[in-house]
Design goal:
DNA damage; Deoxyribonuclease I, Chain A; single chain; 20% helix; 11 strands; 235 residues; alpha+beta
Length: 235
């Protein structure tokens, strides 16, 4: 599927593997020779992201400059001439919301990181942000108000991101689209019934809106409990 799509940049989240464990068929993906991987320090099989590009970035950084979170390998940022591309896997608040407070601290630190980038040049943030922002973004909002990914605090964090000059590209283009989900639990045939959540986003600096061509949810692509999303920009 990746070969058919031939993306300029491919962002992967929750890779659960260090650099040495990246499968050779991924290493050898045609058209994506520049690959940058982050993984959790001392925690094999946990978290991790990868950013693969067709052209070599001007610069690549890892993390957000916050020692509490950077050891988890959650963020890789590539700088290109016209924008930054940020690949991110935001922490889950955990069953019973046991990790809600660390998650909220991440949200605050991450927003400051994005603001610092945006002060230099526009930003495209791609990733699993582990939040369904509005009721339209999950199948059963009423039943999930106290569950990770739909707490008022997590949703408010996303609202603050938008208020800082960033735009949810999909919802900007398709404000009324219902049933547009990117994650379905493996349990109970949820995907076949489209009982899902929209947790994966392409968020961009507002001044990039003139370059936004489309933002797609590729819900027919199998292989994970998440589906890919695609952002198309003319930059």
């Amino acid at each position: 599927w990746v070969e058919e799509e031939a993306p300029d940049v491919l962002c992967l989240q929750e890779t659960k593997c260090g650099v040495s464990a990246v499968p050779p068929e991924v290493r050898a993906l045609p058209g994506l020779p520049h690959q940058f991987w982050a993984s959790a320090e001392g925690r094999p099989g946990y978290s991790g992201v990868g950013l693969l590009t067709k052209t070599e970035p001007l610069n690549v950084t890892y993390g957000i400059g916050d020692p509490e979170h950077d050891a988890d390998g959650r963020v890789v940022t590539a700088e290109f001439p016209s924008l930054f591309v940020v690949c991110a896997y935001v922490p889950n608040a955990g069953r019973g919301l046991v990790r809600l407070e660390p998650r909220l601290r991440f949200d605050a630190a991450f927003l400051e990181f994005l603001r610092r980038l945006d002060a230099q040049k526009p930003v495209l943030l791609c990733g699993d942000l582990n939040v369904a922002h509005a009721e339209i973004d999950l199948c059963h909002p009423r039943a999930n108000r106290a569950n990770p990914g739909f707490t008022p605090q997590e949703r408010e964090g996303f609202t603050r991101l938008l208020g800082a000059g960033f735009v949810d590209s999909f919802r900007h283009l398709y404000p009324e689209a219902r049933g547009a989900f990117t994650f379905w639990t493996y349990l109970g045939g949820a995907r076949a019934r489209n009982v899902g959540w929209r947790l994966d986003y392409a968020v961009l600096s507002r001044r990039l809106l003139g370059s936004l061509c489309d933002s797609k949810i590729r819900s027919t692509v199998a292989g994970s409990d998440h589906c890919p999303i695609t952002a198309l920009l003319a930059v």
